[in-house]
């Protein structure tokens, strides 16, 4: 299936010389939820801004739903909805007026029934006559989403959409995101709440220092790069890891009551059998055990740190040469 967004060789260098994006290639599939992760300053917002036509690229191309973002700018914008990080709305307008006006900006004919459906879906119908300035932060965020969806786009960008939103509203919003995906909208989100990406996304992309360093199916990524922990709770605390276990990947808790064994889930030999055999030889009993897989956040942090270390090594090598 042809991707709904295809980014090829995309680069962006600003007038001051700062390079925000470096030769980015990225395909986003129709109907998926794609999470773009990266630390602050990694290039996430620049990438989104280029695809949405807000920032001009220095090099490369972007095709969105069959249209070139530079050659077919107006057609591309009609296909895309954007919820930016900043809450930018007319404070003195009503909810109904501001959402209806956004639809008109894209040349769409008035459709009160659609706007009503949208406001109900976002739990804004009871606030339709309220001024934006009178709404809570969470409700203002919902208005931003309503504005982005007012012209019925095929692609929706959510740039840190739940920033400043309380837990209950956040859960409601993610339920809405699922419903949008089911209706055929492709969703690209950036978030600092990595557990949300872990729960919601079909695929994950990691960007760092302007480069996309990994794109992978979420489940495959966690299987490939995840680590598991086997935790043993000891009835009698240990002062230190016994000599017979010293060469194993073990950690002893500060109070000596827990041994944690780490192993690679993709390895054919996890070493657990050998670990348990040595425990028996050392006469170490345990009263409980459980396993835990690495979270997406731990994998993400590991990837970013690894890439940073590689960059430092490369710079050191170049300096020596």
UniProtKB/TrEMBL annotation:
Q: List all membrane-crossing ranges.
A: none
Q: Is Metal-binding set as a keyword in this record?
A: no
Q: Which SMART domains does the record cross-reference, listed alphabetically?
A: AAA (SM00382)
GO MF term set: ATP binding; ATP hydrolysis activity
Q: Which organism is it from?
A: Microbulbifer rhizosphaerae
The ABC transporter domain sits at 5-234
**Is the Metal-binding keyword given for this protein?**
no
UniProt KW keywords: ATP-binding, Nucleotide-binding, Transport
Q: Which InterPro entries would you find in this protein's record?
A: AAA+_ATPase, ABC_transporter-like_ATP-bd, ABC_transporter-like_CS, ABC_transporter_ATP-binding, P-loop_NTPase
This chain belongs to the protein called: ABC-2 type transport system ATP-binding protein
What the entry lists under PANTHER family is as follows:
ABC TRANSPORTER ATP-BINDING PROTEIN
